[in-house]
Amino acid sequence: MLTDLWNLMKAYVPAKDKSIVAEKFVDICMDNGIEDDEIKELLGHDDELDEAIQYNLDIEDEDEDYYEDA
User: How does the average pLDDT of the chain come out, rounded?
Assistant: First the structure.
């Protein structure tokens, strides 16, 4: 569901603003009780979203590879 919501939102966001919107999207998810594990499941779907998740959850690149392989 979160992936679908992100894909819908990003279609309406100019390319130059996608990183900012991705960070806000992750912030809103976290503020509304979405568990870190659920947010981590979004890794690998979109570059801007991946960067926002890594930043907000303090994930290293090695951790990202683990979630992409899972």
Answer: 88
